[in-house]
Amino acid sequence: MTDLSTTRCTAWAITRADGTTLGFTDHDADLTFAGLTFRAASGMTASTLAQGSGLSVDNAEGFGTLTADAMREADIRAGHFDGADVKIWQVNWQAPAVRQQIFHGTLGEITLEGGAWRAELRGAAEALSRPLGRSYQRGCAAVLGDAACGFDLSTPGFTADTTLRSATETRLTLPAIDAAPRWFERGQVQILSGAAAGLTATIKTDEAAGDTRILTLWSPLAITPEPDAQIRLLPGCDKRMATCRAKFGNLPNYRGFPHIPGEDWLRAIPKSGASGESLFQ
């Protein structure tokens, strides 16, 4: 009888959002099963999986080396592996048909460390820890353009497609745009072409200066886009009812509670007075 303790290895399958599936193994030779080749040259391994009963979240870490044709630094920085589907098996490398799936979840935050990558492995129960329901708050709880908001961002005059003149990590210089200054503050910039294609960032400030539009970002893009890259600008929303009405004409879908009593009302005390006067001071 074969001693499985000496013929057992681990195999990982990572499926990105674009449908690309990559296979890795800690065995010293490639394995093939389930229609996928699991490569031994990846240097990938994982910490011990913390698996429990019930609905606890079973999280661990995966780490490996950067390679030119698998886990490339540019793809990681561009976000292609964010939220990727992960499956892990224990496999008998002498007979790959003898295997057991021990994990199914997603990749969490990925960090780069001197030619290697490290990522949190989030178990399938992770989704159960997300808060549900609405918050009772003054500002709108919807995200501009989502199902709750209902506003169509493709409406003419609200978004803008243009070409980048120059860029640093947090500053983008563009040609003049037919939109009011500060129109895109709190909105998003989407990179549509070049090495940074697919990246998005939130706009902190939006300034018009003659024939130039200057955007400052809240945080740097993982890859600085090159000049002449195509970009798309989405309008910003400050979550106020007045903005929803005046800028977007979308007041029926406002998802806030602007008439919540403030702290002054909560501290008010009763007072006596004539009929029709306020009973609080």
Explain this structure:
- By secondary structure, this protein is mostly beta strands.
- The protein has two domains: 126 residues, Pnp Oxidase, Chain A, CATH 2.30.110; 75 residues, Thrombin, subunit H (Beta Barrel).
- 7% of the residues lie in helices and 34% in strands.
- The chain contains four helices and 16 strands.
- Strands 3-4-2-1-7-8-9-6-5 form a nine-stranded mixed sheet.
- A hairpin with a 2-residue loop joins strand 8 and strand 9.
- It starts with a helix and ends in a 15-residue tail after the last helix.
- 23% of the residues are buried.
- The mean pLDDT is 84.
- It comes from Ketogulonicigenium robustum.
- This is Phage protein.
- Pfam families: Phage_BR0599, Phage_phiJL001_Gp84_N.
**Biggest sheet architecture:** 9 strands, mixed
Return the string of H and E elements: HEEEEEEHEEEEEEEEEEHH
Count of DSSP E strands? 16
> Structural class of the secondary structure composition?
mainly beta
Which spans of ≥5 residues are poorly predicted at pLDDT below 50? none
- Multimeric organization: single chain
Question: CATH topology of the largest domain, anyone?
Answer: Pnp Oxidase, Chain A
How many individual domains?
2
Question: What percent strand?
Answer: 25-35%
- Separate helix tally: 4
Biggest sheet: strand arrangement: 3-4-2-1-7-8-9-6-5
> N- to C-terminal separation?
86 Å
CATH class of the largest domain equals Mainly Beta
CATH architecture of the largest domain: Roll
Morphology: extended
